[in-house]
Amino acid sequence: MSKQDALSRRLFLSAAAGMLGVASLPLDWAHVAHAAHEADAARKRAAVRFAFLTTAEAADVEAIAAQIIPSDQTPGAREAGVVYFIDVALGSFFSRLAGEFRARLSEFHSLCRNRHPEMTSFAALSSEQQIELLQAVEHTPLFATMKLLTVLGMFSMSDYGGNRQNAGWKLLGFEDRHVFEPPFGYYDRDYAGFEIEAGKQE
After folding, report:
1. Nearest alpha-carbon partner for 94 in 52, 127, 122
2. pTM to 2 decimals?
3. In angstroms, what is the C-alpha Rg of the chain?
């Protein structure tokens, strides 16, 4: 991978992580917590089954996510199990999006079939064909929702179904500590025991 490609990937990941703080979708946190427990239980079962997505839908959703955050020298959306996060999200705390998402995914599948009648699904297309088709729909609500869900699935806690083996956190260099203790930074300077490091006083 060239330095330019590496820089582009880092810029994308930085921007993607920023989306987590600006997502305007209100959440029912009780449902979020319940979904986390359900996702954890699902991973512990011998056979993981999709709760919302059909097998065919899951294959296409995973393929789309894998183009949004592709795999190279580091894991992408496929390795991080983003599709499992999306399945949990649409079946629980993002359930209000589920009906519209499924309808738009069906429309997308029809577009795919019209352009490539020899193929049975988006997932069956070559990577080049997939990219070409996604470029044609990159300004649609479906693609916007897929981008958001892919980023959330890549960087959220693994309890929600994605970020498998903390793949997303490792890309960002995030250290998962069980307990964070103050002081956290300048804003917390009045915390008892806080000392400004030498050379950082203004």
Report:
1. 52
2. 0.68
3. 20
User: What would the two tokens of residue 128 be?
Assistant: 């080049």
Asked whether 123 and 54 are in contact (CB, 8 A), the reply is: no
Q: What would the pLDDT profile of 145-181 be if each residue is shown by its tens digit? A: 999 999 999 999 888 899 898 888 888 888 776 666 6
Task: Say what angle helices 82-91 and 55-68 make with each other, to 10 degrees.
Answer: 120
> Rounded distance, CA 140 to CA 51, Å?
26
* Angle of helix 98-115 versus helix 82-91 axis, rounded to 10: 130
Tens digits of per-residue pLDDT, 176-200?
766 666 666 666 667 666 555 554 4
**Whole-number Cα distances in Å, 152 to 5, 22, 158, 188:** 23, 11, 10, 28
Helix axis angle, 98-115 to 141-155, nearest 10°: 110
- H/E stretch holding 16: helix 3-22
